[in-house]
Amino acid sequence: MDLYLFLGILAIPLIFLFWISYFQIWTAGWTPTWKSDAQKIIELANIKEKETIFDLGCGDGRFLLLGAKEGAKTIGIEMDPIRYLISKTRSLLSKNRGKIEVRYGNFFNTQIKKS
After folding, report:
1. Is 23 exposed, middle or buried (0-12, 13-18, 19+ CB in 10 A)?
2. Closest by alpha carbon to 55, among 37, 82, 75, 71?
3. CA distances (Å), 70 to each of 4, 21, 43, 106, 114, in order?
4. Any alpha helices (H) in 1-115, and if so which ranges?
5. Predicted structure pTM score
């Protein structure tokens, strides 16, 4: 019984480490854009209301929030479950939540014909 408990407790951090390393080593990893740079990019894009912005690999959702703040409908796609949950939570807590959509999945397997 003690052996099973020990193995169960040991398995949890090992699974977590494997999961984290998978997304950092075998995918592109995550290097978030600085908030000041993201704001400048949104300004330079000259986003207008009723436009749709796609953020492929939306990470923590900062471009989604900034685009929605400018009045655009924003759609983010994220394949990392933790970052998906972070961006989904941030979008639900935003006052512009009606303009933000966060999808879980690989953007190579997602239809984005609207763009």
Report:
1. middle
2. 75
3. 54, 36, 9, 26, 19
4. 2-25, 35-45, 62-69, 81-93
5. 0.72
Assign 38 to helix, strand or coil.
helix
pLDDT in tens, 22-48: 666 666 667 788 889 989 998 999 988
Give the angle 5-11-60 at the CA atoms, nearest 5°: 135
Q: Helix 81-93 and helix 62-69: axis angle, to 10°?
A: 20
57-107: pLDDT as tens digits: 898 999 999 999 999 999 999 988 888 999 999 999 999 999 999 999 888
